[in-house]
Amino acid sequence: MKLVTFQPLRTIGLPNVSYIKPEHLFKEKQAIVEADWVLFPEYWQVNSLVYGLKKRIFPSIQSYHLGHNKIEMTRALWTVCPEHVPYTQILANTEAHIEQILEEFPFPFIAKEVRNSMGRGVFLIESEAQFRDYARHNDILYVQEYLPIDRDLRITFVGDEVIGAYWRVGREGHYLNNVAQGGTISFKHVPPDAIRLVEKVAKQLGINHAGFDVAVAGDKLYFLEFNVLFGNMGFRDTQQLVEKKIWEYLVTHRSPDSPPIKPDTPAPRAS
Hints:
Layout: E1 3-5, E2 17-19, H1 29-34, E3 37-39, H2 46-52, E4 57-58, H3 61-67, H4 70-80, E5 88-92, H5 95-104, E6 109-112, E7 122-125, H6 128-136, E8 140-145, E9 151-158, E10 161-169, E11 184-186, H7 192-205, E12 209-217, E13 220-227, H8 238-252
Parallel strand pairs: 1-2, 1-3, 3-4
Antiparallel strand pairs: 5-8, 6-7, 6-8, 9-10, 9-12, 10-11, 12-13
């Protein structure tokens, strides 16, 4: 089984992988055509690979398209599990819509940039002045209810299953729980219902590589977002485990026309 990767650090333990620089997509077209799988393309490459060259890519095209911005992500979640999405408005930036949000949402509420991750581009809005400042810098108004939580869950889904989960506990006085923003990690008492929910929704949407952020508020679970190219902070030996699960997925879902896997092909080992 021939593999091509555009991000070698994410596939370092996989066998039979050739690295191609993303900017050489068209120069190395023949090598890509001959590959059984193309791994971790950049977003701008996805349509050419899937629709033009008819290639199997990992992560899935659903993962890329739905994870590319919060609007597409939220609309997809509304279709399969609306009860697990915080109350959200996605509106064009007009004065009428600014007034609508100020009337509809009590302070504080959350405003987000459409494309960002690791806690960047998330704002706690506590006054009209803060919201109007946010609106001056964003063409789309993405606003959510504020959930009174001091932690959330990072649940990592790779291939066909959840491979790990932990709490991200925010610093006192901060509303962001991301590890990149100073949050700490706890593996204690991760609710099984949250893991089952992520597995169900990921499979419904065709997502096969993502870190899901899930809040627990009262007795309800809420999706905050998911990141297709998630970081490995929080898990011991996560890289090896991720590679092992990716390999298992590639083998299981390879094309029927692909040659059989050689018995002596070394699979990645999870430490």
